[in-house]
Design a protein that fits this description.
5 helices; mainly alpha; Four Helix Bundle (Hemerythrin (Met), subunit A)
């Protein structure tokens, strides 16, 4: 005898608002936003307390605005490309998403490599983590973002492998997308605050 035989009907399960993977990643991303908020607040306080005309500190190089703007464009483009790839994956299928996810991965890797080259140049010019408060904050804030970007690239690469194997699920891709969008959208905020 089943429950329906006795006249009891169970409520239909509602479709979840977000996939479990994406929801879990969103909770993680929220904690990371708090981390970066703390970094930004501390940086703003230190920069605001500097004497007029004394920021950046004397003897420290200016941060490369133009070159970093190009890196930023590559990162933002990777977010757009991944959004297209994710949509194609959900609406059309894995084959339609492959080149978009690969392109997002390449653009993200380009961003990280270009930022690494920027760091090497700044180190050669004397900006180190111990050279000044600017150096300390720059390497902690931008370095934390770089670690997140590298982790997100690894996750994106893992998604590309799963896509080729035919085992990528919407939940897994959703989690990777949330993490990547965090990396992509956090960067312009950091760029606007730290590089000015």
């Amino acid at each position: 005898m089943s429950i329906t035989d006795v006249g009891v009907t169970l409520p239909r399960r509602k479709r979840p608002l977000a996939a479990n993977g994406a929801l879990g990643m969103a909770i993680f991303v929220f904690t990371e936003i708090m981390l970066f908020s703390g970094f930004i607040s501390a940086f703003a306080i230190v920069r605001g307390s500097a004497l007029p005309g004394m920021w950046p500190p004397l003897g420290q190089p200016r941060l490369p605005l133009e070159r970093t703007a190009l890196n930023t464009a590559a990162l933002l483009a990777s977010g757009v490309v991944l959004a297209i790839g994710g949509r194609r994956f959900r609406e059309v299928g894995a084959a339609a998403a492959s080149r978009w996810i690969d392109a997002a991965l390449m653009l993200g890797t380009l961003f990280v490599l270009a930022q690494g080259a920027e760091w090497v140049g700044l180190l050669r010019q004397g900006l180190t983590i111990t050279s000044s408060q600017l150096g300390s904050f720059f390497y902690v804030i931008v370095g934390a973002h770089a670690l997140h970007a590298v982790a997100a690239i690894i996750c994106l690469g893992w998604s590309a492998v799963l896509l080729r194997r035919g085992t990528l699920t919407a939940s897994r891709l959703g989690a990777v997308e949330v993490f990547w969008y965090f990396v992509v959208l956090m960067w312009p905020i950091l760029y606007a605050i730290v590089y000015r």
